[in-house]
Known about the structure:
Distance between the termini: 36 Å
Number of helices: 18
Radius of gyration: 26 Å
Shape: elongated
Oligomer: single chain
Number of strands: 13
Largest sheet: 6 strands, parallel
Amino acid sequence: MHRPMEGIRVLEVAQFTFVPAAGAVLADWGADIVKVEHAEMGDAQRGLVRVLGYDAGGSSFAPIMEGPNRGKRSIGLALDRPEARPIIEDLVRDSDVFLTNFLPAARRKLGITVEDIRAVNPDIVYVSGSGFGTEGPDSEKGGYDSTAFWARGGSAFGTTPAGAERISFMPAGAYGDNIGGMTIAGGIAAALYGRATTGQTSEIDVSLLAVGAWATQFTVNMALMRGEALPAQSPDKRSASAGNPLSGAYRTSDGRWLQLSMLQARRYWPEFCRAIGHDDLVDDERFATDELITRNYTAALDIFADIIAAQPLDHWRAALKDIRGQWAVVQDSWDVGTDEALLANGRIADVVDAEGAPRKLVANPVKFDNAPVELTRAPQFAEHTDEVLRELGYDDEKLIALKIAGAIT
């Protein structure tokens, strides 16, 4: 059962990445996702032709849309028109999950609050993605991952060195959105299981702020225990953990980085020293025990930094390939997309775009039954309006009338 959500129908009234990313995960898992877009403008994210300075180069295949919307069907529906109300109600009756990230005021205006939706389908799982949660002083406010997840959730502070002139920014577009989307998908799976076993449905909210706090929970929990904020990280460019030179980052001669994470320093010390070609360090009295390594770790940092800086990345890939100690190359976006482990596990998946060209996308991280995920492209705007409505029983005459009324695209 590598597509365990087969037979589940999800109605998605959402845009941008947070929440739609959850729909993409559920689509990967086999669910049928009907995405409702504004009848004239579509998902507002379709207008983001440039993200972080990059664009799709004139292709219809835009990763900012394809990633969080692959595998869905799109309909154009004017939720603010009375003629569209019977359609949304028919879709709700036919769905197991209602998924939205519209702000509370918009949901009230459009008649898609939990009360509105449950009046049509009492058993539906109602899911909202929010910036700051459904309760509290900010429940009516919107937020993006850069504000609610990254800045307010603690990641920006935690990744910015002390004394820096500017805070660090997210490492990728929609970074917190995609993490939040995966969280929502897990919540939906739990709610559907609960409904199947107890007969009781659920209302779910996942906020970007809560996902951010969960991601940084170690430092948050430490701060709560101490009664004060933890200090900003050290600006040491080698990024080594205090007291352990085998847990830190070192630059190679060609400007790349190795990240070591050998938390039991003395255990891995002999093997590592031999692997880097310095048997003389194995029995160096300064590093004979964990206590001595901690005491003399600044000297070890300098030694290792000089050794690793003398050779390029390919040299160290080969030298460290078979050691037991934990280490990794600090990979760029191309490295990640061509990572051998991701490819072997089917986490970089093939997809054919709207123009028939072969493409690749990152698959969701959950693999079922060692089976490769099968992806289909994101829909074009309102591509499936007629198809979905015909499934609901609307004939050509009704479709034409609805289009004339401006209720559907």
